[in-house]
Amino acid sequence: MIITTIDTIPGKTIKEVLGIAKGQVVQSKHMGSDFMAGLKTMVGGEIKGYTDMLNKARTIATDRMVEEAEKLGADAVVGVRYGSSSVMAGASEMLCYGTAVKLK
């Protein structure tokens, strides 16, 4: 599966647009990590636990988008974008979406 943030694939021709493919996940940290993150905000700096959480969530959302695109019969997903939001304290939603296409 080709995944790209641009709307075309150099050297390829899009034969058919199949629709929007998306994947999402709501990810959280356990209470111990959340407590330590709260302490980290007092002194500043990167909160590594949350960076790791968001990276994992991004990977899961991307994998789910690819699964949905494969169900549509896609060869590629173009115009891929990510979005995130805070659902509650310590939990974030990660959304990955793009246009599933069939290539010539």
The succession of helices and strands, N to C, reads: EEHHEE
- Structural class of the helix and strand makeup? alpha+beta
CATH homologous superfamily identity: Hypothetical protein apc22750. Chain B
Residue-averaged pLDDT, rounded? 87
What is the count of distinct domains? 1
Number of helices: 2
CATH topology: Translation Initiation Factor IF3
Shape: elongated
Determine the strand fraction and express it as a percent band. Answer: 35-45%
**Strand order across the largest sheet:** 1-3-4-2
Alpha carbon gap, first and last residue: 14 Å
CATH class: Alpha Beta
What Rg is obtained from the alpha carbons, in whole angstroms?
17 Å
The major sheet is characterized as: 4 strands, mixed
Extract low-pLDDT stretches.
none
Q: What is the level-2 CATH architecture name?
A: 2-Layer Sandwich
* Helix fraction bin: 25-40%
